[in-house]
Amino acid sequence: MPAEHEPTLKDVAAAAGVAVMTASRAFSKPDLVAQATREKVLSAAQQLGYRHNALAAAMRSSQSGLVGVIVTNIDNPFHSKLARGIDEVLTANSRRMLLGHSQDDPKREAELIRDMRSWRVEGLIAVPALASTPPEARFAGLPTVLAGRAGKTGALNQVTVDDERGAQEATADLIARGARRIAFIGNEEKITTTTTRLSGYLAALGENGIRRDDSLIRLGCRSVDDAKRVAKQLHSQLQPDAFFGVNNQITLGVLEASAGFAAPPLISGFDGMDFADLLRAPVSLVSYDPAELGARAATLLLESLENPEAPPRHDVLPVRLLHYGGNVTDAN
After folding, report:
1. Under 8 Å between Cβ of 179 and 210
2. Predicted local confidence at residue 41, as pLDDT
3. What's the rounded Cα separation, in Å, for the pair 245 and 240?
4. Which residues are within 8 A (CB) of 91 and not within 5 positions of it... i.e. 6 or more apart?
5. 205: closest CA among 238, 183, 232, 237?
6. Closest CA to 53 of 24, 30, 29
7. Distances (CA, A) of 226 to 18, 237, 263
8. pLDDT for res 58
């Protein structure tokens, strides 16, 4: 007895009494099909045991319904919140997200870009990895929005936060509370968020008549442990009266180190921190909503897919300085 053949889309269309193209759209672009028609197609598919192959459909079409998302550090809550904001917008627009983790490694990022091209993603949203080649070259030929880290030439759409103003406001706040020897701890110098936040820090020093002291500027930290080690070194060697952390991981390292200091310094940092309102040590954070950043990036990508001839846009998310840990103290 011959085996029954696997049901096809043509079989589903015949059972539902619709054209094959209509049945295809009921799966890939349901918003373009009347609800009653879509329900007939889905009912027929269920009765026949048909399983829609989204990848095969994507291979036959330039519209896969997939958007690639590449982040650099999946352990950082910033990236999970960014991805959530992206996913909410994509889901509302009948798209799905493919998430990749570059680990801030340009070779791994290149592999992810190649893989996502093979999956026929309609576009990419990426926190670009630290690399010598500009993002504009690495993501060329694929609709892309950079999120969080800006590009080099402005040739790509991008959504960032007001890095320089936020760092300037936070540093000025430390100075207003009496700090004069403010240590700046950052990650890699080539990362755009580090350079722009360092510019804001230096601008606040200059506006308040404080000379730049390069011995208080330490870059290259890539983890909480790195920042903790550097903060301890600075405290024992130079005794700064305040610290500024370039991101939430750096600030967390400074907080851990300062727990062992006899006289805790003033601490400020960029990015919000989960459970910051439970902190006992006073800390000021330049805050914004990563989910909103992701939502804006997804919206910008969808707009660019609708209007590919539009010039690249750079949206900037505002920030605000929030104080945690009870009464914010002054420097000794």
Report:
1. no
2. 84
3. 13
4. none
5. 183
6. 24
7. 62, 17, 22
8. 55
> Contact at 8 Å (CB) between 156 and 145?
yes
Count CB neighbours of 276 within 10 A: 18
Closest CA to 269 of 127, 80, 78: 78
pLDDT at 50: 80
Q: Which residues of the chain fall below pLDDT 70? A: 1-4, 52-63, 326-332
Q: Cβ contacts of residue 200 below 8 Å, gap of 6+?
A: 163, 164, 165, 166, 167, 168, 169, 170, 171
Q: Give CA separation, 105 vs 2, 112, 129, 185, in Å.
A: 53, 11, 6, 21
Q: Where are the beta strands (DSSP E) in the chain?
A: 66-71, 96-101, 123-126, 144-147, 157-161, 182-185, 217-218, 242-245, 266-270, 283-287, 314-317, 320-324
CA angle centred on 276, ends 293 and 226, rounded to 5°: 85
This prediction's pTM:
0.80
The values of phi and psi at residue 89, to 5°, are -70, -45
